[in-house]
Design brief:
Number of domains: 2
Strand content: 15-25%
Helix content: 25-40%
Order of helices and strands: HHEEHEEEEHEEEEEHEHEHEEH
Mean pLDDT: 95
Number of helices: 8
Number of strands: 15
Bound molecules: 2,5-anhydro-1,6-di-O-phosphono-D-mannitol, magnesium ion
Radius of gyration: 20 Å
Amino acid sequence: MVTLEQFIVDKQQEFEGASGAFSKILRDLSLGAKLISFYLRRASLTGLLGELGLTNIQGESVQKLDHLANTLFIRLFSQNPHVAGLASEEEEHFIATNPHGKYVVLFDPLDGSSNIDVGVPVGTIFSIYRRVSPVGSPCEARDFLQGGRAQVAAGYVLYGTSTLLFYTTGQGVHGFTLEPAAGEFLLTYPQVQMPAQCAFYSFNDNQLHEWAPGLQRYVQDLHARNRTAAKPQSLRYVGSLVADFHRNLLKGGLFMYPGTVKKPEGKLRLLYEAYPMAWLTEQAGGKATDGQKPILDLPAQNIHQRVPLFLGPAEEINRITTFLSENVPVETL
Ligand code: AHM
Ligand code: MG
């Protein structure tokens, strides 16, 4: 049995020499995850379901548990001497914390919040950078806007039938399961690889008529292939990015949330949703694009910018990008 803490200490040399900064940040993340997991399991018994009555910077109604998770992570990271600043889906601006910290942390404290009230899995997503502004001064916007390839660690926590923490530091993807009896995350998924076969697909097609013509044609082609395939692909989608992505990571599947004519930028956020998932995908052997370019190569302009997102086995993503680049309308088939 290997605990998350032990695993990080063993791997620490790869990351940060012996300062222990990374272990401390991950320890805070895992402590937050344990507490959120505890609150979620009792939410319907303790009055923690439902809306808080406020609207966040995204224009979305804040759930009580969104607020609780956000407040918890802000408290944890504000007390961490290695964290110079943080950015959250729930906060309009980044928050400068310890000027002597060397890292900044971005997170979506509780992703998939429309699923909280119905007991469907939700998640936390995180992304960590080494700051580029001088240590000793308050962190700056540029620390958060370095681009996906500059991430030094990224991952997610899935609050599902068990609580799982998956992360990468660029040395593969490793997954841990919370053992509630011990209060520890134990290594259960070392060196995760996404199966090359695309057995599943996950997307919400309620705006399909607004997608690029080539993408509509891809979906038509996908259904046509499935009609004759010996092993047709199956649809799986619950509307929690972490849960949908996690399933596809382990089973081999495509996740997409494209842009539409009205919202070409899509729904999901580049910095604390797309970049971390894209890095995990690449580290697990898959591909991550916005339909044209690798997600990790897209420049970051602001903390809350949105991006179309396609994650999955390389062959399926290549097929999509070909359909998108040809962009032939469905009608001409
Ligand atoms: P949230 O960050 O406000 O929870 O929204 C993001 C979620 C993702 O988890 C999920 O992939 C997507 O929204 C689902 O959107 P839709 O309901 O349009 O399918
Ligand atoms: Mg989210």
